[in-house]
Amino acid sequence: MRKLAFSRPTSIILGATLLLSIIVLQRSSPCDHSQPITSIGACYQAAYAARAYYDAIVAEDYTQAFRYVATFSTYPELPLQIPYKIQEEHWVNRMRNAKADGVYIAEVRGIEVWTDDAYPMGRASVVIVADGKEHVVAQDIHFMKRERWQIDSVQSEGDFGRLDEALGGHLTQFCMYPENCE
Fold first, then answer.
1. Buried b / exposed e across 115-137, counting CB within 10 Å, b at 16+?
2. How many other C-beta atoms can be found within 10 angstroms of the C-beta atom of residue 172?
3. Residue 22 and residue 28: Cα distance in Å, rounded?
4. Which of 75, 111, 146, 149 is geometrically suited to a Cys-Cys bond with 46, CB 3.0 to 4.6 A?
């Protein structure tokens, strides 16, 4: 095994840089560091997914946003057994239709993610445009774990149910048992 040797000034600089990095990470972290390490991992994954999802939504890059959506039909815990491209096409069209109808997220003002019993939860402050008017709204973010944590659904304060449906992963056309579908 080979040892690395640094001069004293270099060692001090490296140590200070590491300490500063840890402090900055903790202060800028969207997650509560008092949680168990498994909760922190889930929190970071969910926070990353939420940020990437909302950034893509605001940029109207719905194909990119879809990468962070956990789709489902009748039962949220069961992933759809339909090709990814078909799910993506349906979801992207739903988002485009909402935008064409004049209901969309224009800005994200902040995102908070935390864990409760190792399950990530979140809240975003967004500006929703509806009928040409801007509304600052809080949205609860619900996550689901597939290969990684993804957005399952969002629920906005106020009367934005149609947009919430478009943003979430519930794809009703693909219900396997129509009598159980909305």
1. beeebbebbbebebbbeeeebeb
2. 12
3. 10
4. 149
The residue with greater pLDDT, 89 or 175, is 89
Written as six digits, the tokens of 174 are: 């693909």
Give this prediction's pTM: 0.75
Contact 141, 50 (CB under 8 A): yes
CA distance 128 to 160: 9
Percent of the chain clearing pLDDT 90 (strictly above): 54
Query: What DSSP element (H or E) covers 37?
Result: helix 37-58
Q: CB within 8 A of 74, min separation 6: which ones? A: 175, 176, 177, 180, 181
- CB atoms < 10 A from the CB of 81, how many? 8
CB contact at 8 A, 39 and 45: no
pLDDT band, very low/low/confident/very high, at 82 (cuts 50, 70, 90)? confident
- Bridge partner list, 105: 128
> Is the pLDDT score of 26 beyond 70?
no
CA distance 68 to 149: 8
Mean pLDDT of 25-39: 51
**Lookup: tokens for 161:** 């149910």
Cβ–Cβ contacts within 10 Å for residue 77, how many?
Answer: 9
Position 176 scores a pLDDT of 46
Quickly tell me which residue has 């445009």 as its tokens: 129
